[in-house]
UniProtKB/TrEMBL annotation:
Molecular-function GO terms, alphabetical: biliverdin reductase [NAD(P)H] activity; riboflavin reductase (NADPH) activity
Database matches in PANTHER family: FLAVIN REDUCTASE (NADPH)
Family per similarity comment: Belongs to the avfA family.
Species of origin: Talaromyces proteolyticus
Domain NAD(P)-binding: 7-199
SUPFAM superfamilies, per the entry: NAD(P)-binding Rossmann-fold domains
The protein, known as: NAD(P)-binding domain-containing protein
Any Pfam family hit: NAD_binding_10
Coiled coil: none
Gene3D superfamilies linked: NAD(P)-binding Rossmann-like Domain (3.40.50.720)
Taxonomy of the source species: Eukaryota, Fungi, Dikarya, Ascomycota, Pezizomycotina
Length: 214
């Protein structure tokens, strides 16, 4: 497969790139600072930002991707609260439609949208009174854009709290997190593995899997 990734310079995104290249896929990564990623065979680094549709088009023009992966974090400052990811996903969906790329795997978070009531009371309070609320709002907007498209197959991955560490067994907790655990967590390496698997499979299309480590 050829993959376009937005967010490839991030902690999870860089692990996604490692996994993809390790499985002999090829990758175009759109990044603000190309020096932030080690260039390797199979990896095409494009300088720019998904905030600008023209930069996404430039990336797609290098090689049309089979699948898009997004591992961006909500931007600080420049965008109105909760609007960065939504704006970026609108741009990406529009370029995907232009190039007839019909699959996207989007990294959201457990607690976004209809999974919010499943958070424990501490996390729900954090969403209400800390900047986490704005980030979740942004993910929710992006999820809604994806759910509203009819020509694109989406997978919205909703990981539990991210940790560092090795790739471990991934537990599917439901589409909102129906299997109760007080404070589930998952390593970024495990999330990266799940995202790459989802990119190449039909299993999670149209779904919002909440995942943690087993
Ligand atoms: N922390 C948790 O426990 C948790 C749990 C579940 C889900 N999540 C979600 O997981 C996602 C990925 O997390 P992570 O820790 O891997 O992210 P990260 O390391 O913070 O990486 C963020 C990525 O977003 C890019 N980015 C940020 N602001 C940008 C902007 N204004 N314009 C263009 N690119 C921008 C960064 O690019 P630069 O390198 O250029 O800055 C980087 O590639 C986040 O959306 C987060 O909400 C987090």
């Amino acid at each position: 497969m050829h993959i376009f990734i937005a967010g490839g310079s991030g902690q999870t995104g860089s692990l996604v790139i490692d996994d993809l290249l390790g499985q002999n896929h090829t990758v175009t990564a759109l990044v603000r600072n190309t020096a932030a990623i080690r260039n390797r065979i199979g990896l095409d680094l494009v300088q720019g930002t998904p905030v600008h549709k023209a930069d996404i088009q430039k990336s797609f023009s290098h090689q049309k991707p089979d699948v898009v992966i997004v591992t961006l974090a909500s931007a600080k400052g420049t965008f109105e609260k909760g609007s960065f990811l939504t704006h970026v996903i609108c741009n990406i969906v529009s370029v995907m439609e232009e190039y007839s790329t019909d699959k996207i795997v989007y990294m959201s978070a457990f607690g976004v949208g209809d999974s919010y009531p499943e958070l424990n009371f501490l996390m729900r309070a954090a969403v209400c009174i800390t900047p986490l609320g704005g980030k979740f709002l942004d993910h929710e907007g992006a999820e809604q854009v994806l759910k509203a498209t009819d020509r694109i197959n989406f997978v919205v991955v909703r990981p539990a709290m991210l940790t560092t560490g090795d790739k471990g067994k991934v537990k599917f907790l439901g589409l909102r997190r129906e299997k109760w655990e007080f404070m589930p967590s998952i390593t970024r390496a495990s999330v990266a593995g799940f995202i790459v698997e989802a990119a190449g499979s039909q299993e999670w299309i149209g779904k919002t899997p909440v995942i943690s480590n087993a």
